[in-house]
Amino acid sequence: MDIRIKRVYEPPAPDDGFRVLVDRLWPRGLRKDAAALDAWRKDVAPSDALRRWFGHDPARWEEFRRRYEAELEANPEGVRWLLERARARRLTLCYGARDPEHNQAVVLRDYLLRKAATDL
């Protein structure tokens, strides 16, 4: 299973596969046609409350991961939808955050890979 992450502001590439925006809010200043997305799944993004609490503070990273994974556990339909696409072809999870190491796409990718390995 090939799941990648990419900042949505980076130019789309032919090898991105199926591109999904996993942010609850549309990225500022980005035209929808420039994003070249196949889907926008707000339902798999962190809740508004969790997103605000985290505020991209690296000191809150581990707790953010724990809370976000709990939200994903409560959303089996959204997770299943992403796994179906990832099983069919490369899946690129697009995000808008500036920090490439501390964002929801990192957590979501890791969660999906673990889920796929245990659901075999």
Write up what this structure looks like.
- This is Uroporphyrin-III C-methyltransferase.
- The protein has 120 residues and is α/β, with parallel strands linked by helices.
- It has one domain.
- Helix content is 43%, strand content 13%.
- It contains five helices and four strands.
- It has a four-stranded parallel β-sheet.
- The termini are close together.
| Whole-number total of structural domains | 1
Count of beta strands: 4
Mean pLDDT: 95
Beta-strand level of the residues, as a percent range? Answer: 5-15%
Gross morphology: globular
Order of helices and strands: EEHEHHHEH
Structural class: alpha/beta
**How far apart are the first and last residues' alpha carbons, in Å?**
12 Å
What is the gyration radius calculated from CA atoms? Answer: 14 Å
Uncertain runs: none
In short:
The chain is 43% helix and 13% strand. Strands 1-4-2-3 form a four-stranded parallel β-sheet.
Task: Detail the topology: elements first, then pairings.
Blueprint: E1 3-7, E2 18-21, H1 32-35, E3 39-40, H2 48-54, H3 61-73, H4 76-88, E4 91-95, H5 104-118
Parallel strand pairs: 1-4, 2-3, 2-4
Helix pairs in contact: 3-5
